[in-house]
Amino acid sequence: MAKEYDVVILGGGPAGYVAAIRASQLKLKVAIVEKYKLGGTCLHKGCIPTKALLKTAEQWRSLKKAASFGVEVDNFSLNFTQAQTRKNEVISQLHQGIQGLMKKGSIDVYTGMGRILGPSIFSPLPGTISVEYDEDLEKENEMLVPKNLLICTGSKPRQLDVLPFNHTTILSSDDLLQLETLPKKMAIVGGGVIGIEWASMLSDLGVEITILEAFDKLLPSEDEEIAKALMKNFQARGMTVQLQANISQAQSTESDVTLTINGEEQCFDKVLVAVGREAIVNGIGIENTDIKIEKNYIQVNKNYQTKEAHIYAAGDVIGGIQLAHVASHEAIHAIEHMAGLKPDVNEKQIPSCIYSYPEIAHIGLTEQQAKVEFSNIVSKKFPLKGNAKALVNGEDFGFVKMIVNQDTDDLLGVHLIGDHVTELIAESSLAFTLDASAWEMGHTIHPHPSVSEVMQEVSLAIHDEAIHY
Ligand code: NAI
């Protein structure tokens, strides 16, 4: 029997489940269809598990330098199985939390594969969802007939023709999360966000890391000074970084992989391929609609409507900035638009974070982009070495850089590298939202001692008024 809904959401990641909650708040009758578990890549294969393992790496680093703080710790060792167990416990707790939120919002959850049907006996419009279950469940398909459909099917790791995943020695980031033991020597292909986070974590845990990046710098979309500072830091920690690396061949055995890099052979125990992610648009019935796909991404307008006005899409499946918080934001926008509200999104206000050691965070334009867009900019830096709390913490590597339009004092970009700077960027997010000037940020009283004072100092530096530098 067909069931009718105001909204059906296909995919239960940070776009889908957040959209379901917002729809429920707006009193829409809502269902969510998820083939695996609510939480999506972010919770099960991305943000949360990697951050849990990065926390293990942080604990390890702390122990290694504990003696310099006057704490003598003897005989500590890494139990990677326990690190994985803890990671899984964190995921499980958050997963339960999302399930609780679904119940609280009276959201119907279907755990099966959702497929979009074309016009049918259920509706003259495409968009009816057929929920299909695993054969062993012996459960019949169910039909969900929505007034509006929101597609949030996300993305999966992209593979390289020369290095197809074999899931034992040539790995995706999904595979890496299942490792039971650490390799000795590993190549990371792609010096982007995923590559950098894994390189940092595995290097801290004792794995010999070589990063192979095709471009002429790490993190091609970050500010150049930040990318250079990270590269120097990684090299000082013993990692090998090879830029403009062209991999022409890969030969794998059961226990290792030999890569031909710029004509020379190098052997590794394992290879992580992290060269971007691609949208999941196949096998979900898009061909039964007029939805347009370009470069493998679903095309949407500024309110996230596809060519079928009652079908929306949000998150990684539409491309753009592939971040969990962006996905949630887009999905809320889509739901509010369906409900007749007038939501607004300004891409300038999206912070972006990398959780390596050191961490990296930014919002707005890089200095290179600002120079192209504005004729009169000022850019200033403030080092963490000039901050008392950073010294107290024993974490004084890094800096904050602010770029401002000199004619108006408007913030154009804020970039940070250093310990836990992903927490500091939120202040700049608020500043962007409130359209605050550098003067206003500099004259906001920050607590002392706190690492957050670097934000005040760099804002004062814009007008040559920094106190501690
Ligand atoms: P990415 O686009 O960030 O980086 C891919 C890197 O691979 C680029 O530097 C590119 O130049 C390089 N590359 C491409 N082809 C190559 C080749 N043949 N050989 C060597 N290098 C090559 O993609 P990544 O790191 O896979 O991340 C995917 C998405 O997931 C990104 O959009 C990212 O923002 C998101 N993500 C965000 C996180 C966060 O917010 N902390 C954490 C993890 C992922």
**Which structural class best describes the helix and strand composition?**
alpha/beta
- CATH homologous superfamily label of the largest domain: FAD/NAD(P)-binding domain
Number of strands: 24
At the third CATH level, what is the topology name of the largest domain? Answer: FAD/NAD(P)-binding domain
Biggest sheet character: 7 strands, mixed
Mean pLDDT, nearest integer? 97
Instruction: Kindly provide the radius of gyration, computed on alpha-carbon positions and rounded to a whole number of angstroms.
Output: 24 Å
SS summary, helix count: 13
Shape: globular
Bound molecules: 1,4-dihydronicotinamide adenine dinucleotide
The first-level CATH class name of the largest domain: Alpha Beta
Strand content is 15-25%
Measured between the Cα atoms of the first and last residue, the distance is 70 Å
Helix-residue proportion: 25-40%
* Low-pLDDT residue intervals, each spanning 5 or more residues: none
Which architecture of the largest domain would the CATH scheme give at its second level?
3-Layer(bba) Sandwich
Number of domains: 3
Question: Which labels suit this protein?
Answer:
469 residues, alpha/beta, FAD/NAD(P)-binding domain, Enolase-like, domain 1, 3 domains, 7-stranded mixed β-sheet, globular, binds 1,4-dihydronicotinamide adenine dinucleotide
Write a structural description.
It is a single chain. This protein has helices at 16-25, 40-44, 47-64, 80-104, 173-176, 193-204, 224-236, 324-338, 367-373, 388-393, 421-433, 438-442, 453-462, and strands at 2-10, 30-34, 108-111, 113-116, 129-132, 142-151, 155-157, 170-171, 185-189, 208-212, 240-242, 247-252, 257-261, 264-268, 270-273, 277-279, 293-294, 297-298, 311-313, 352-354, 359-364, 377-383, 398-405, 411-418. The termini are far apart. Strands 1, 2, 3, 4, 5, 6 and 19 form a seven-stranded mixed sheet that branches. It has a five-stranded parallel sheet with strand order 8-15-9-10-11. The protein is built from 13 helices and 24 strands. The model has no long low-confidence stretch (mean pLDDT 97). The longest helix is centred in the N-terminal third of the chain and has 25 residues, at 80-104. The protein is 30% helix and 25% strand. It is globular and about 70 Å long. The protein folds into three domains: 3-156 and 278-345, FAD/NAD(P)-binding domain (3-Layer(bba) Sandwich), CATH 3.50.50.60; 159-275, FAD/NAD(P)-binding domain, CATH 3.50.50; 349-462, FAD/NAD-linked reductase, C-terminal dimerisation domain (Enolase-like, domain 1, 2-Layer Sandwich). By secondary structure, the protein is an alpha/beta fold. Helix 7 (224-236) links the parallel strand 10 and strand 11 (240-242). Helix 1 (16-25) packs parallel to helix 8 and helix 3 (47-64) packs across helix 4 (80-104). Residues 46, 160, 189-195, 197, 212-215, 220, 245, 247, 274-277, 322-323, 353-355 line the site of 1,4-dihydronicotinamide adenine dinucleotide.
